[in-house]
Amino acid sequence: MKDRLKRCFIINEDNPVLTRGARTVNIILVLLLLTGLFWFGFSRLNYPFYWDTIWKYRVSFFSGFKLTILISLFSLALSLAIGLVSGLAQSLPFVPFRVLSRVYVEGIRGTPLLVQILIFFYVIANALGVNNRFIVGIVIMSIFSGAYISEIIRSGVESIGESQLETARSLGFTRGQTYRYIIFPQVISRILPPLAGQFASLIKDSSLLSIIAIKEFTMAAREVNANTFSTLESYIPLAVGYLLLTLPVSALTKYLERKYSYAS
Amino acid sequence: MRLEISGLTKRFGDHVVLDRVDLSMRDVKSLVIVGPSGGGKTTLLRILAGLERPEAGRVHINDHELHFREEYLREYRKRVGMVFQAYNLFPHLTALENITLPLVRVHGVPAAKAREEALALLERFDLAEHAYKKPAALSGGQKQRIAISRAVAIKPEFLLLDEPTSALDPEYTAEVLDLIEELHEEEMRLMLVTHEMGFAKMAADRMLFIGDGGILAQGTPEEVFEHRDDVRVRQFFEKVLKY
Ligand SMILES: Nc1ncnc2c1ncn2[C@@H]1O[C@H](COP(=O)(O)OP(=O)(O)OP(=O)(O)O)[C@@H](O)[C@H]1O
Ligand SMILES: [Mg+2]
Question: How large is the average pLDDT for residues A217-230?
Answer without folding.
Answer: 91
